[in-house]
């Protein structure tokens, strides 16, 4: 089987299985104290805590375009990136718990001054998903996840460039969170819910939490030979 | 009504590098010393233990060891006519939180200033003439000389266990070290760190161009070491989780690894974590402090009486507390009167990212400070009159880590997402190195700190307001460095490279991490009308208040500040021990 075919069939399989919303809740997914032999959940079996079913379909479809399965290396869906994002919404990040969130707020401030919105990231997601889906329905007559890949990419690019203007949320801020969190979920330790079986680390050659290289430091220009380990001791 | 704790001789605000050192020095005098630390207690074990520290998301991206803006932050604006906005989420700079402070999460670049940097204004005037200093530039001398500080640099390097190679031993230039450094009375206590591929490539190309590369002075142990306090460092294992992390290996110099273990054994020392000082309390005449008021871990207000107050919080917090406590006259940028908050400065950095398709750098094999550097374009090496700027820089080819969420430099033109992004990531990861320029930042009349009129913290206190932007002098400096780094980059013949330097249309951007070298605002000097502290870091106005840290710098060095911060702390401690305790009062007559 050629690499191209393999990728195409893998991609179809993943997409097909994910578009079915599971009827049964199988728990909240990854435990932060998961032992190495406790396998990460299948994305298809995961019931999101923060996102509702429609939002979840959007997140999965968008993640699949931001880090697709095409070509070498795993995509966002194979690495459970949406699960990571769902967990982040429920944690300190989603609630902006560490951020200074007192007013007054100057929403139209220069971007040089960083985050100035009164919305928490989870509010940005909720409003951003709703506004993007409305835009797709109104302008394109189709839900985001019903668009073909090129159509989804066009919408994501419009979000990224701020070409869409929403009433309640900044399109570019929504996209920025989505892209940032997608990459985080791809490359963070699997303990946080994404990077399933350290597939993203294996893809680029990052040894994860090995954190001991004294005998390797002066071996110049030789690729490091060992695979990654995770915080829970999983070896890849 | 605040409850009152029993009197102590000395109350110290904060428990990072400076107050750990001050604790050692003042307990040796038999004084009863108490430290109040705003953040949590933390130590190598259990807080920094493997494996949990090797978690990029939690510590590198979500800043678990850093100050939470929700609890404490500043507002920022570019000019005196602008409204400031809160620094709501961390980006440009990362003050530490908890015992050890920023000394737990730093990389460990440990420099001495060049001697003339401590008398910069005098040096410029004597060498190039006062007329080359722009009208709005407010640079000053520190009021203490390199020669006076040399024994304290030396001792701090021995306490912190610095790995490096001397370039100037008692005036004799040494092969392999920095020939442009000030004289040193002794070699570094440890040899340099192991060399990595990027180090070696940079060293060779720099030498070929007639420059003088040398290993970065590192607060990462290159071998097993025991310091003068009996504290032990383990050899660094190049784990690649240094900056933003507590050291999981006991190898990075920090208050925990170098001082606190010894200090905590002393019966006349104690500390209380989760205790945030609200203000320094003054006697009715305003000339002495009576102690501090703080909020304890239960949320109760407590008065802690003391004879001596040592402020050793992060530089920005020192200035904030001075403003909130009414110690010294707040600076007014319009009239030029007042001193507290004056001369806030930062660091002018830039760099190149070089991509080599056929080289394996193994970037995850790294330590915070195992770089190769050069100082040929330092403050003392540049003809300011000819080049048209005041300042200087050191260059640094370091490989601190390969953590992939934040360290994924891609060649120019690579997309930010999609299949082509993934392809670029695979092709690029592990094949890039950087050359950085770490440069000085001068002080200016309208770059300063004061209290914000709008935003408050959880206690209802005004946040501090930072007014700051980049100035042409410093942009000219960094553009000069850009040309030099461009030449070095080309000579390395990468497949692709990109330069990132501030330009004349650049404004201060709080989003990307730049450096946690916020300096000034409580500056030292020789004249109470232009400085907050005298040459011994003693408040001119309230003689039993001493203020440690980089808030004392009248402008920023070309270097990372910790070497000078450490030496100044020992210098101030010596003055307290030998002069102040015998006869409490101003150590310098105004």
Would you write up a description of this structure?
The complex is a heterodimer of chains A (236) and B (590). Chain A has 236 residues and is mainly alpha-helical. Chain A has one domain (3-204). Chain A has helices spanning 3-18, 53-66, 81-90, 121-140, 149-160, 171-187, 199-204. Chain A starts with a helix and ends in a 32-residue tail after the last helix. The model of chain A is unreliable at 1-11 and 16-34 (pLDDT under 50). Chain B is of the alpha/beta class and 590 residues long. Chain B has helices at 17-27, 56-61, 102-105, 120-128, 146-160, 197-208, 255-263, 315-325, 384-387, 419-428, 472-491, 562-580; strands at 3-4, 8-13, 33-36, 74-77, 85-86, 168-169, 172-173, 214-215, 225-226, 232-233, 269-272, 276-282, 289-295, 301-311, 348-355, 372-374, 393-397, 432-439, 448-456, 462-467, 496-500, 545-547. In chain B, strands 1, 2, 3, 11, 12, 13, 14 and 22 form an eight-stranded mixed sheet that branches. In chain B, helix 1 (17-27) packs parallel to helix 12 (562-580) and helix 5 (146-160) packs across helix 12 (562-580). In chain B, 59% of the residues are buried. At the A-B interface, helix 5, helix 6 and helix 7 of A face helix 2, strand 5, helix 10 and strand 19 of B.
């Amino acid at each position: 089987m050629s690499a191209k075919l393999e990728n195409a069939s893998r991609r179809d399989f993943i997409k097909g299985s994910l578009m079915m919303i599971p009827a049964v809740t199988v728990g909240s997914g990854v435990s932060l104290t998961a032992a190495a032999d406790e396998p990460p959940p299948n994305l298809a079996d995961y019931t999101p805590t923060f996102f509702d079913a429609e939002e979840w379909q959007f997140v999965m479809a968008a993640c699949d375009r931001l880090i697709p399965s095409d070509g070498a290396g795993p995509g966002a869906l194979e690495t459970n990136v949406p699960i990571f994002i769902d967990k982040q919404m429920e944690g300190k990040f989603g609630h902006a718990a560490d951020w200074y969130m007192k007013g007054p707020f100057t929403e139209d401030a220069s971007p040089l001054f960083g985050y100035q919105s009164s919305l928490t990231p989870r509010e940005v997601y909720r409003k951003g998903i709703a506004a993007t889906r409305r835009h797709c329905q109104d302008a394109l007559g189709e839900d985001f996840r019903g668009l073909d890949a090129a159509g989804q990419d066009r919408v994501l690019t419009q979000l990224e460039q701020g070409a869409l203007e929403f009433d309640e949320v900044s399109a570019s801020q929504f996209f920025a969170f989505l892209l940032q969190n997608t990459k985080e979920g791809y490359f963070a330790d699997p303990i946080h819910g994404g990077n399933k079986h350290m597939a993203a680390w294996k893809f680029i050659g990052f040894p994860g939490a090995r954190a001991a290289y004294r005998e390797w430091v002066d071996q110049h220009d030789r690729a490091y030979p060992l695979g990654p380990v995770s915080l829970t001791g999983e070896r890849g | 009504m605040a409850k009152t704790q029993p009197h102590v001789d000395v109350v110290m605000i904060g428990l990072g590098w400076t107050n750990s050192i001050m604790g050692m020095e003042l307990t040796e005098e038999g004084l009863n010393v108490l430290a109040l630390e705003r953040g949590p207690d933390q130590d190598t074990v259990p807080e920094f233990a493997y494996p949990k520290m090797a978690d990029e998301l939690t510590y590198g991206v979500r800043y678990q060891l850093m100050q939470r803006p929700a609890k404490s932050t500043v507002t920022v604006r570019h000019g005196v006519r602008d409204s400031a906005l809160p620094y709501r989420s961390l980006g440009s700079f990362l003050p530490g939180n908890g015992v050890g402070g920023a000394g737990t999460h730093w990389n460990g670049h440990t420099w001495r200033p060049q001697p003339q940097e401590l008398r910069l204004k005098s040096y410029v005037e004597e060498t190039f003439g006062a007329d080359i200093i722009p009208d709005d530039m407010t640079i000053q001398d520190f009021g203490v000389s390199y020669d006076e500080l040399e024994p304290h640099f030396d001792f701090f390097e021995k306490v912190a266990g610095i790995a490096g190679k001397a370039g100037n031993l008692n005036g004799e230039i040494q092969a392999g070290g920095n020939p442009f450094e000030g004289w040193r009375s002794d070699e570094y206590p440890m040899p340099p760190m192991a060399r990595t591929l990027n180090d070696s490539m940079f060293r060779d190309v720099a030498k070929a161009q007639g420059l003088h590369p040398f290993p970065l002075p590192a607060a990462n142990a290159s071998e097993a070491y025991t310091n003068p306090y009996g504290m032990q460092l383990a050899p660094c294992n190049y784990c690649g989780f240094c900056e933003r992390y507590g050291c999981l290996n006991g190898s990075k110099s920090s208050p925990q690894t170098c001082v606190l273990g010894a200090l905590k054994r002393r019966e006349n020392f104690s500390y209380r974590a989760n205790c945030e000082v609200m203000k320094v309390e003054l006697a009715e005449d305003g000339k002495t402090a009576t102690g501090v008021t703080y909020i304890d871990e239960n949320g109760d207000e407590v008065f802690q009486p003391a004879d001596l107050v040592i402020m050793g919080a992060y530089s920005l917090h020192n200035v904030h507390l001075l403003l909130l406590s009414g110690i010294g006259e707040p600076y007014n940028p319009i009239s030029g009167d007042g001193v507290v908050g004056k001369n806030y400065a930062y660091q002018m950095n830039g760099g190149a990212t070089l991509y080599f398709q056929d080289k394996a750098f193994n970037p995850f094999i790294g330590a915070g400070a195992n770089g190769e550097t050069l100082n040929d374009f330092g403050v003392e090496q540049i003809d300011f009159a000819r080049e048209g700027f005041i300042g200087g820089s050191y260059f640094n080819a370091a490989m601190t880590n390969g953590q992939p969420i934040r360290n994924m430099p891609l060649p120019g033109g690579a997309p930010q997402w999609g299949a082509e992004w993934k392809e670029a990531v695979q092709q690029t990861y592990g094949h890039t190195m950087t050359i950085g320029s770490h440069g000085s930042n001068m002080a200016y009349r309208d770059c300063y700190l004061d209290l914000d009129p709008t935003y408050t913290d959880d206690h209802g206190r005004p946040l501090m307001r930072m007014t700051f932007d980049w100035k042409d002098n410093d942009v000219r400096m960094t553009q000069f460095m850009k040309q030099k780094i461009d030449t070095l980059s080309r000579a390395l013949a990468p497949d692709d490279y990109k330069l990132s330097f501030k330009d004349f249309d650049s404004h201060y951007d709080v989003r990307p991490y730049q450096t946690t070298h916020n300096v000034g605002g409580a500056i030292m000097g020789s004249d109470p009308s232009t400085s907050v502290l005298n040459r011994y870091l003693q408040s001119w106005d309230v003689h039993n208040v001493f203020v440690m840290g980089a808030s004392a710098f009248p402008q920023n060095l070309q270097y990372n500040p910790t070497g000078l911060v450490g030496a100044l702390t020992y210098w101030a401690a010596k003055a307290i021990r030998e002069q102040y305790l015998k006869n409490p009062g101003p150590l310098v007559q105004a």
